[in-house]
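U., I forgot to send this yesterday:
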Amino acid sequence: MIALKVPPLGESIVEATVSRWLKKVGDAVNTGDTVLELDTDKITVEVPALRAGVLASQAVKEGDIVHVDDLLGEIDETKAGAATSAPAPAAPAPTPAAAPSPAPQAAAPASTAAAGEVKSAPAARRAADERGIDIASVPGTGRGGVVSKPDVLAASSAAPAAPAPAPSAPAPSAPAAPRPTMPTPPPAPAGARETRERLNTRRKRIAENLLQSHLATAHLTTFNEIDMSAVTALRERVKEKTEKKTGVRLSFMPFFVRAACIALKDFPVVNAQLEGDEIVYKHYVNMGIAVASEQGLVVPNIKDADRMGLLDIARSITTLAKKARDVKLTMDDLTGGSFTITNGGVFGSLVSTPIINYPQVAILGLHKIQDRPVAIDGKVEIRPMMYVALSYDHRIIDGQAAVLFLVRVKELMEDPAAMLIE
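Result:
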């Protein structure tokens, strides 16, 4: 029997929720097949079979909480031959003396046939069937070249990329990535007035972190509004040329990231962290971008964003958004952030008070761009305006620093050419 155990889940992650079993007891498994999926507070982990055989037992149920190295089930590798091919045991029958020689020959083609031309996880085959993708054309990134579900999702998102240039005329207003599909509750039984759903590990951790942020910090929010006319005009002027030359679609988010990086240098306490009775000043900016995905809220970050130009920032945002959609974010993507930007405007939010991504000490909230009448040089004009909000930890950031930081971001966004000389 081969024990199937919870693998290492990443830095500081010790537990996960059994999301779903992809194999039932008695099902045949090939080496590399995904047997079950685990949800952590940050990523989804596929647990593969290390040896071919038959799933002999399941030690946990879907929804159970498990910890690193816990027993998940057992694989009976002695039944590998019977599971892969029925005629395989009959091969040694003619002559015992010849058995050692033909056995390996018979085993190899049998397992290949059972694998169906390509090594792939059941979840990957199901996703490929749903999307009409030939799984044999999908390169596998799993152990031993096994095609996983994220590989299929990546191939699916890449497939329509070729014909995309034609409809690229209508540009997105503010989002760096398309709107994700929101998680849906379980279907209600007929006549039921209430249903219950157990919190998975990720949702529990999100809840704990948000509560900890409110309990451990002195939350305060300051607001301002930005006239987006100048940056909109600049973006409209260069976006088509930029996309043709570099392949990067320029959204508003890279401008905000660049402006925030410059403002953080002017007000380093906003990029700091409180540890005990010490303030830790960080001389780098790992910029977190909050992403709402089907798996829940995640905040991947761009390492050393303060050392990047506008196009490099745009490329990094596109890469992180794609990895989030394809469930391919790594622990390195999700750890080490020093400041966060969240964009509620993607969903139509006009104004909000974002919660600090603890242990960071501030978060910048962006909102919907809306045409509003404003006074310009004594005249009323219609301008594209955006409310912005900075939530900050008042224990170490004074109101003056918070307000001036937000004013600096406003100044840079209203005069984007100033970013080029910083």
